[in-house]
Amino acid sequence: MLGLPLTRTADGFEAHMGINHLGHFALTCQLGDKITDRVISVSSAMYMFGRIHLDDLNWHIRNYSMWAAYAQSKLANMLFIEELARRGVRAYASDPGIADSEITRDSTGVLPWLGEHLFQYVGQSAPNAARATIQAVTTVLPSGSYLAPRFNVRGKPKVAEPRKKARDPAMARRLWGLSAELTGCDWQGHPSRQATAPGT
């Protein structure tokens, strides 16, 4: 979900945060101990422009910006994976790059036009964009790894080094706590499991 005007979910969450992070957080918690292998979160290079506002995560006070809202939700994805890995859950972040998809179908302004006319030329096909996530399904890389295409745009996925703010352990813990409070769902993970590849 990208480029929505200020929209709220049925639970009152700002739509980018509710759909891109809090919904996935709640689903992971609800699945709980049924998760036997790994969790994968689809992020975006836009996380680099994000900033987590714990005091106004859902845009009740700040002047709304659809770009800042999207970037914040994608930074939340990265921090979610960071905290899952710290808790002993095998977890990976994947980045599809720029994809020829319908991500801008509900957007406003120039974004729908860009999605229809530009992304198909600059970006890659949806199947190619899915490669980072498919690789995350089978990889034996250390938990917490981030897979992205070249320059976060297109091409074969590879391990990318996230920015420091996407690896901030204090912010990851605080965001987890707030997410648990907002969704009414918490999960301690599997403390007995190792967050490393088998055999390492």
Structure description:
With 200 residues, the chain is α/β, with parallel strands linked by helices. It is 38% helix and 12% strand. The strands form two sheets. The chain has a four-stranded mixed β-sheet with strand order 1-2-5-6, sandwiched between helices. It has a two-stranded parallel sheet with strand order 3-4. 38% of the residues are buried.
Q: How do the helices and strands line up, and which of them pair or pack?
A:
Elements: H1 15-31, E1 39-42, H2 66-86, E2 91-94, E3 99-100, H3 111-117, H4 119-122, E4 124-125, H5 126-129, H6 131-138, E5 146-150, E6 154-160, H7 169-183
Helix pairs in contact: 1-2, 1-7, 2-7
Q: Which features would summarize this protein structure in a list?
A:
alpha/beta; two-stranded parallel sheet; 7 helices; single chain; 200 residues; disordered C terminus
In short:
The chain has helices spanning 15-31, 66-86, 111-117, 119-122, 126-129, 131-138, 169-183; strands at 39-42, 91-94, 99-100, 124-125, 146-150, 154-160. With 200 residues, it is α/β, with parallel strands linked by helices. α1 runs parallel beside α2 (66-86), α1 crosses α7 (169-183) and α2 (66-86) packs across α7.
Task: Give the biggest sheet.
Answer: 4 strands, mixed
Strand order of the largest sheet: 1-2-5-6
Structural class: alpha/beta
Proportion of residues in helical segments: 25-40%
Secondary structure: number of strands: 6
| Strand-residue proportion | 5-15%
Shape: globular
Unreliable parts: 191-200
CA-to-CA gap between the ends?
A: 37 Å
Using only C-alpha atoms, the radius of gyration works out to 16 Å
